Structure formats: C-alpha cells, structure tokens
Amino acid sequence: MQTGSQRTNGYELGVNGRAASAWTIAGGCAYQDAFVTSATTTAAAGAQVGQVPHHTFSLWNLYHVRLRAGIGLGIVYRSDMFAAVDNMVTLPGYTRVDAAVYLPLSMRMRLQANVENVFDRRYYVNADSNTNISPGTPRALRVGLTATF
C-alpha cells in the first residue's frame, strides 16, 4: 500500500487571438514541478512524480484562405518525464507537428482533414509502469464531414 503525499508547483499561461483578420492563433505553455513530499512504499521524499513533464508548450495557427476555407499548422512540445514515481525510467521529450485543411462544400457542409504527427516522429505519451510504455500515434490522417442543420 502506498502512503505519503506530493506537491506540484508551477504555472500555466494560455493566449489566443488574431494576428491578422484571416489569421488566428492559440497557444499555451506550462511549467510543473511535481515531487513527493513524504515517502511512499516506492519513492523517497523529493522524488519527481511520474507522468509529469516540467515543460509543455502548444501553438495552433489557423489561416483563412477564403470564406470558411482554411489551413492550420500546430506544434506540441513536451519535455522528458519519469515513467513512474521511482524515477528509474525516463520518457524522452518530444516535439510533434500537426496540420489541417478545412474546405466548405456548401453553406451547411464542411470537409476537414487533419494530419497528426506530420513528420512521423517516434514519441512516447505515457506509461502505466516502467515496463508498460505507450507510444504516440504515428502519422495519422483523419477526415471528417461537418454538417449544420
């Protein structure tokens, strides 16, 4: 049975707005320092809490090429983090680039295509333990149709 406590210090900042009439931007960054404040059965006081990166950053740009049609480009960054509270295995940090295209088909329908992990980088998103580590999604294409009624 685990006992003990942990604490997280940090900040988070998010912004969004228009850089120009056809260009919208949304982004955010965060810093977290999560640590064990009293010993557990698996971690000493002062150990870093698993699954908590120190730094994260995201930025999404959407440019409207014409009415209701647009292209998007985004970046996601996460620094390395420990897989578990014992601090034995480190999941490496990563940077991922995503993109999107939005095309109107009619006044009530829009086609959208998203590409996640444009450069097909290998990365790891989380872990259930030091030996059960989940890889991130390889390059993926998602196409959707949006209709309004």
How would you portray this structure in words?
The protein has 149 residues and is an all-beta fold. Helix content is 0%, strand content 62%. It has strands spanning 5-20, 23-38, 55-66, 69-78, 81-82, 90-91, 94-104, 109-116, 124-127, 133-135, 140-147. The chain is elongated. The protein has no helices and eleven strands. The mean pLDDT is 93.
Write the layout of secondary structure elements.
Blueprint: E1 5-20, E2 23-38, E3 55-66, E4 69-78, E5 81-82, E6 90-91, E7 94-104, E8 109-116, E9 124-127, E10 133-135, E11 140-147
Antiparallel strand pairs: 1-2, 2-3, 3-4, 4-7, 5-6, 7-8, 8-11, 9-10
How would you summarize what this structure contains?
The protein is an all-beta fold. Helix content is about 0%, strand content about 60%.
Biggest sheet strand order reads 1-2-3-4-7-8-11
**Per DSSP, what share of the residues sits in E-state strands of 2 or more residues?**
over 45%
The helix/strand series, from N terminus to C terminus, equals EEEEEEEEEEE
Mean pLDDT: 93
Count the strands?
11
Distance linking N and C termini: 54 Å
- Helical amount among residues, as a percent range? under 10%
Structural class: mainly beta
Tally of helical segments:
0
Radius of gyration: 20 Å
* Uncertain ranges: none
Shape: elongated
Largest sheet: 7 strands, antiparallel
Oligomer kind: single chain
